[in-house]
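Crash report, auto-generated. Payload:
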Amino acid sequence: MQRLCILFIAAFIWLPSAAAAGPELIVEVDRTRLYEGESLVYRVTLNHVENPVEPDMTALRADFHVTSLGQQSLNSRSITIINGQRSEVVRYGRQYNYRLMPLRSGKLTIPSPTVKVDGRRLTGREVSLTVLAPDQQGVVRMKITSDRDSVYPMQPFTVTLSIAVKALPPPYENKNPVGVQSTPPALQIPWAVDDGLPQGLVPKLSDQQWLGGMENVRGVGFSVNNLRPRSVIALFEERNYSFQPEPEKVHLADHSGKETDYYRFDFRRTFTAERIGDYTFGPATLKGAFAVGVADGRPVGEDIYAVAKPLTVAVKDVPEEGRPDCYIGAIGQFELAARLTPKKVKTGDPMTLTLVLTGRGAWDGVAPPKLQDIPEITDHFKIYEATEETKGNRREFTYSLRPLEAGISVFPAIPVAYFNVETNRYVTIHSEPIPIEVTKAVKLKDRDIVAPGLTSNGNHRELEMSREGIFANITDSSQFADQSVRPRLWLAFLGGLVGVYVLFALTLGGWRRVSGNTALLRRRMAAGNARNVLRRASAEFTAGRAAEGADLVRAALLGLIADTFDLLSAGLTPAEACRRLESLGVEADLVRRFKDLLETCEGVRYGGAGGASASIGRDAQHLLRPLATALKKLKIK
Amino acid sequence: MKNSRKTRIVLSIAGACVAVSLICCHGCRGTVDTETALKVQAAQQVFDQAQSPEDYAKSAAMFQEIIDRQCPSGAALYNLGNAWMRAEQPGRAVAAYRQAARYLPRNPYLENNLAVARGLDAPTASRPIIETVLFWQNWLSYPEKFYFAAAAALATFVVAAAGLFAARRPMKRITWVGIIITGVLVFSAAYDWNRFDNTLHGVVIVPQTVARTGYAASYEPAFKNELPEGTEFEVLRRRGNWLFVRLPGGGEGWIEEKDAVTY
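Recovered output after restart:
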């Protein structure tokens, strides 16, 4: 692996210098010399190829067992700016990694891989390998066996790796031959770890459960697939776990045919296959030091490499003989239940039938039961295609159906057959019949239905058609009108209503406040009333009735004050009116003019100021405006 | 006697306002223009003549175009769901049916089709308490809730305005009842506004997708199981081409946007 890394780094260092070169195919291997049963990593790199295609590996399969280890992109783009000079390097490529296991020993050649990219054919180099056969030795003998050569899917079978280790020479013949090594022999069992199992092969116990039962905490036994504790706080490299099945002392012929004592260790693992096909187990390999003699009273060891030939177990399809028509492809052991909703319907109404198959077995080939082939159902129901859904150890088939006639009182039992791997025969199970009630649908005449729906032009509205019932479309085009909602507009409408109400309430309240306050009303109308009276006074003066005119002027002025302060005008004297004005801070000049005018009016009224009568009306007009303005400015409670 | 007569008159006016406003609101629904009607006809024709899932997918594309062009309508969304269902794309069908249910909540066919699209035993999210209290929430359509809220507001306005002239106790009580009813209906409409227009929903449209703990394929799966097609979720965040989603059961994870459709 280290060598592969070095090669990989070297290739990457070399790549930039070759960046300008054309497409190429680079082949790398991590070793060229290995034992039969061992494997190597084979890497194919497509360099400077924009649209890479995976190389064709079929030519290798004659001599190698090929396993893909995945692929990775080498696309990259780097921009460098030095002294303002910009340079850009763009690389394209893809790496494909494989694990190759030679199927025989000797000098082997990995043929050149070929790829056709963008109309151009790329060829890599051939790689020569030396595959060493295991040494002829009688110390360790290995064999892979199975309790069944062929099985049906879901039928359990047990694969056994037997390792026979020659008993130690005397005086240690009764000691465990794998208990004397300082390092446990390294065993490689391809099917020991769950991650490496082919798709469709399910172990009875997980790798942890299986190996955990054989773990030896004293380090006696075999290391398996280099499994070791994984601890992030370990300062030193941890030792591999050791596993040792219970040994059995047996007599076997060694490589020279001589009967010899051996200790046999059996690694048994039970599987079931969910898919049809051939499953290969092995080869398994063992490397380690084993005692081959005694020198100076101590065992003498020798490095041994042993291989167990691979074994294939065929998983065949279930027999055609005796296969019922209602077989749905299920293999294992199952139960069937049925649900039907609703149970009370009218003819033509949709119903939903759910068949639930539960159990343990192979689900891959399971198809929905064909209800269309059951006359008891098709005579009375229209069946639509089923949908299916898998949930853990159960699969649900959902059918839509419609009763064709009234009076059906039971939905018949549905037969389903599966293959039972324990008894090697087909088993037919039935769902329970379901009581239902189908009544006649009321059929109205067209005119009964469309009568209320006359359109403006007098035509009958087109009826909505549900031609197929479930998943049938709405065809009445008037229903395709825009139904979008604009919440902000609605919000504005509500806000507007609230606003209008508030405005209305404020206006009404204000009007009420004004209409109920007579003092305020008098004050507001004071100036207007005074002007009206003065207008009448002018008319009296014009007519030569000075006394009446003077009375009206007096009434206008005192009335202005009485209205402004909400007083009785009849009892208001000029002196009191002047005091009111002075107390509220009206200009002294205005108060004086007001007082003089009232005194003049008094004089005219009683005949003492005949010459002034002509100017009273004019003076009153001139006084009224500033006086009214001054009174308006006053803050009167 | 005279007072009770006035109250009856005001209440009659308020009732008339509710009726008129509801009729007006219902009548405000847009009409179908000729071009849309023709497009509906063409999409339906493709649907009727379809022989394969691909044909139904074409019909679905035509219904989608109608929706995109003329804003949503329950019928178009319902037909879109049917087309996707027949095109064997239940995930997209669920999304369409869910949107259609906003406008056609009492359509029994829609309810059945949605149940089939989701898988009849698909787990349903627990109903929020608020939808139990507002029991009509999934019975009235999205626009209808706004119509009712507006009608209640208008009636309350009329009663309240009348109460300004005749400040009598029964009138005030009726006004307060109207305000409470309007408030509840406005809340009901606002709740829909939030869950439909301000919340992004989605459905898985590929056979299976892995929800991850981060927004890249290198992150660990968030759940033991993959999410099957038709899984519904709420989108909480978006980062690049990844959506941070919450499942009805409360689980949260990141999924690739291309594996889902959002609405």
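Post-recovery validation: The CA atoms of residues 217 and 243 of chain B lie 12 Å apart.
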